[in-house]
Amino acid sequence: MSGYKIACDKLKELDAICEEFGDRPGELINILHRAQDRFGYLPEEVQRVIARRLGIPAAKVYGVVTFYSFFTMTPKGEHPVSVCMGTACYVRGAEKVLDEFRRLLKIDVGQTTADNKFSLSSLRCVGACGLAPVVMIGKKVYGQVVPDDVERILRELDGDRC
Amino acid sequence: MEQNVTLRIDKHTVRVPAGTTVLDAARSVGIDIPTLCHIDLKELCIRSAPASCRVCVVEIEGFKKLMPACVTKCTEGMTVRTSTVRVLNARRTVVELILSDHANECLVCPKSGSCDLQSLAVRVNVRRIPYAGGAFSAQKHEMSPSIVRDMNKCVYCRRCETMCNEIQTVGALAAVNRGFESTVAPEGGRNLSDSECTYCGQCVAVCPVGALTEADHTERLLADLADPHKTVIVQTAPAVRAALGEEFGFEPGTSVTGRMAAALRQLGFAKVFDTDFAADLTVVEESAELLDRLVRFLGGDRSVCLPILTSCCPAWVNFFEHQFPDLPGFPSTARSPQQMFGSVAKNLWARQEGIRREELVVVSVMPCLAKKYECMRPEFGLGGDPDVNYSLTTRELARLIRRANIDFVRLPDEEFDAPLGASTGAGVIFGASGGVMEAALRTAYELRTGRELQRVEFETVRGLEGLKRATVDLDGFRLKIGVAHGLGNARRLLEEIRSGRSEYHAIEIMACPGGCIGGGGQPFHHGRGEVLRARMEALYREDRAKAVRKSHRNPSVVRLYGEWLGKPLSERARRLLHTRYFNRSE
């Protein structure tokens, strides 16, 4: 198992996650969820460790990671911004909100700012359509967001920003 | 207890075992529903039925939607219609949609003429591709030493994925990304050449389109043949002669050995030699190695690695180096016949003929894609000059023969050249799963017992069963042998060795289903498993017709030892005919 760059303690955590799901290949998606939750993203070496634990090809794990837009192979920022683009949010102007995040952070969807403070993604429906348009930053939910709110939200999270 | 069900398919009343698919039931009464993603080689238990292409849709009474025949099971009283206007139009629409997301470069595609999508488009009468708009994103194009990937042509049938993961258990290819970015790729989207790919080529053998094809060396060969400063000689693997005829309209299982030799001579090769000669040589070395290990083992030496594993199959060697590097002492160190031939030709024959090494080009025709990579292994050469310069597949040879205006069907039979063209029946059967073991037994028996083997056929190691086992009496010693074809079957035997539970003394392993006759470089079987059986039988027929059927009785092999090598496993034989293995796991 040499050749991995992940620190030993993190590797142990990954092992523990797999073990919790009984090392069952059928639990791959759940394991990936937990691993991404823990590491913030799913780099190749994490995928390879999981593949080896579950006894499935690393290419298969890579296939699942690249299929579901929820999973990411790029590290997320300290404040991961997710703009909901589900139907309800979309019709109430989510795209303009997303554009404002793009403009102010100077990054595109799927990217992370150079200082690793913010990353930007879009997702489909968080089940809070009554609050549309919805933005999630980390675990915090912002409802009825309009483009003019964006600058304030960013400044709240990072005083130096904007 | 299997229950039968009765159903109507078009005008036929069909009675089939419960669980039969509508596709199979229809085929049993001569209704040939077209398919694209589906593949079912029943003889080899190879099946991939993702029902993703929807080409096989049919109407079933009681269902509003059209149903895919490949996965819909027959039920009692079912009424199926396979060719209504609704079905035929839907089928054509499906093909039109596939083509709307396909690199339609048929005129210059290497698969043109043997592409399943192309034949399908003709069959369902596609006359235009009406769907514009979204289309594929530019996908990977990779030239590996053996396999060319042009993923813009992929139709996502997932056959390659099934072969690579379920049958071969290599795990190099998986479906990745989604939507127009969908593709099939190794881990991390890297190249095959940076993955655990063994170059077995079974993905190529089942790819219905031009997404996966072989690295083509025909242009290089034409240039070499035209070069007056080069002497170009050729060796042909046993399995090629049993399949090449298919490319020219012969029935599967037609042996075209004599025509092939004639065609190669017409192409301009200075000498037409036979890998079968080197197969005989391999048998002699491998049998000697087997007996050497056995004698030491029986003498109480517990450091001896048994079972001994055959080492002729380069894809199997790649698999071993990637997946089982912890068992380095088990495979025979004998080089593959291709490389034994190259070594003998460049190091001994050339000297005898007074040809300078750098002027000699050794070309092989192989049923195999991994052999292309094997030629490039640095250990098989001298100062950067490979022992075998490059390898062509059976398919490439067929293309060259056609291109050179050779009327293959009307060619008279010719013989191979001496001395590296002489072979025995034991060399011929190398091309079928079980053949190497049978050939080795014919020799090992006589060397061990000192008696002549009367009955040379070992039926128990023949056939298409994935794992075969037998016990052979060697003068009171009961030799246990195993034979595996397909890397998934090989893995089972290797896991046994790893855990110390292996009961065998000798194991033959071939990467491709059926052995080399089912190699990734053979004419496409288009999902017809019976083709492989016919090729296998052709080799055993050729063996029966041979005057000499034991490798150690090949007069050219005997002379080679007498004049150059001394005895099997001699210092000289080890240097020229043996190799070592590398750990290629991460």
Give a description of the structure.
- The complex is a heterodimer of chains A (162) and B (586).
- With 162 residues, chain A is α+β, with helices and mostly antiparallel strands.
- Chain A folds into two domains: 8-67, Arc Repressor Mutant, subunit A (Orthogonal Bundle); 79-157, Glutaredoxin (3-Layer(aba) Sandwich).
- Chain A is 46% helix and 11% strand.
- Chain A has seven helices and four strands.
- Chain A has helices spanning 8-20, 28-39, 44-54, 58-67, 87-91, 94-105, 147-157, and strands at 79-84, 118-123, 135-137, 140-142.
- In chain A, strands 2-1-3-4 form a four-stranded mixed sheet, covered by helices on one side.
- In chain A, α1 (8-20) crosses α3 (44-54) and α6 packs across α7.
- The mean pLDDT of chain A is 90.
- Chain B is of the alpha/beta class.
- Among the domains of chain B are: 4-100, Ubiquitin-like (UB roll) (Roll), CATH 3.10.20; 278-337 and 423-577, Fe-only Hydrogenase (Larger Subunit), Chain L, domain 3 (3-Layer(aba) Sandwich).
- Chain B contains 18 helices and 22 strands.
- Chain B has helices spanning 22-28, 85-100, 116-123, 159-167, 202-206, 218-225, 257-267, 275-298, 314-323, 337-353, 370-376, 394-403, 425-428, 435-449, 487-498, 530-544, 555-565, 571-577, and strands at residues 4-9, 12-17, 39-41, 46-48, 57-60, 67-68, 79-81, 141-143, 147-150, 174-176, 183-185, 212-214, 231-236, 271-274, 308-309, 360-366, 381-382, 385-386, 390-393, 467-474, 477-485, 506-510.
- In chain B, the strands form seven sheets. In chain B, strands 2-1-7-5-6 form a five-stranded mixed sheet, sandwiched between helices. Chain B has a four-stranded parallel sheet with strand order 14-13-16-19, with helices on both faces. Chain B has a four-stranded mixed sheet with strand order 15-22-21-20.
- In chain B, α8 crosses α10 and α8 (275-298) packs across α14 (435-449).
- Chain B starts with a strand and ends in a 9-residue tail after the last helix.
- The model of chain B has no long low-confidence stretch (mean pLDDT 95).
- The A-B interface holds A 3, 44, 47-48, 56-63, 66-67, 69 and B 165, 170-178, 185-189, 195, 586.
